[in-house]
Amino acid sequence: MFIRNVAWLVLLIVFSAAGADDTKPRLLFSHKIGLDWPANSPFWMNFVAISADGASVVSNGQTPNGDVRGLGLWAFPDGKFIRAAPGGVLSGDFKLIATARDLLALGSGRRVAPLAEGYRFGAFSPDGKYFACIRDRWLAPERGASISVARTSDGSPVRKFGTRFTTVLAIDADNQTLASGHWDNVTLWNLLSGERIGLLAGFGRYVSGVAFSKDGRLLAAGTDTGYLQIWDVADRRRMHAMRVGYAEVSNPAFSPDSTLVAAGTYGDGTVSLVEVASGAILSQIQVSMFGCGSVAFSPDGRYLVTPSNGGQLRPRRFDSGGSIRVFRVTQ
What we know:
seven-stranded antiparallel β-sheet, mainly beta, 1 helix, single chain, four-stranded antiparallel β-sheet
């Protein structure tokens, strides 16, 4: 009798814990947007973004008109295809695209300004006034600084700084602080002066993805070996470090209220939902056999969208081929 009572007590504790976990936010598959590419499709999707009004989604990858090198615009949440756009880095306000050599208007496609040099990776300031990029040493007309900042109004240079090999960039909501990822650390810079103002060290690997929270108080950064760290920017303090996968972590995304952070990983193709306060992984779902790139929350925080690089999911949980996955964030 004693053993039986103990067994029931253990079961009660287990079910109670499961019930408690259900009160936390988690990801539930909702629907998909875009094409179902064949399982052997060579096309690559690693970027998605949602507009500030929540009405549209942008992704790279194949579009219905057959374009495989540009961007596709889709209505959200119904997924109706709107149109294709040139490939490049998209500004947060959905107004500008930085191609290899030019700044283009997303709406009309007209040339806004030239870009003086080639780049490997870039990021717009939230207000859209500046474009920061990692200079490509093969395309740049001169050697030297690794980071370049230009005005988007006319493409004129503002500042060049940094000498270390740089992997990724992000700009804070104050439009003045730039974070750059390197081996073992994230460096904080004044965007306009190029002055180094902080160092977040202790990653032990290359930093592969970085993002600020909406209020600028937090920074999330992932490594090329599947680890994610959350930092208090003002105090230069690491809050949490956890493993979310076994390969490169793409650019993370904070929820609008900064209570959650989501990150995709390549290799295992999963997306993870992490609670900022505790560092706990609340939900983890595989979205592709070939990797999950950058992710994005809807402005109201109710949805998370992820790219899918195609490939049959085993078991077949949603569908096969590439498309944008839409998950509902439960509350």
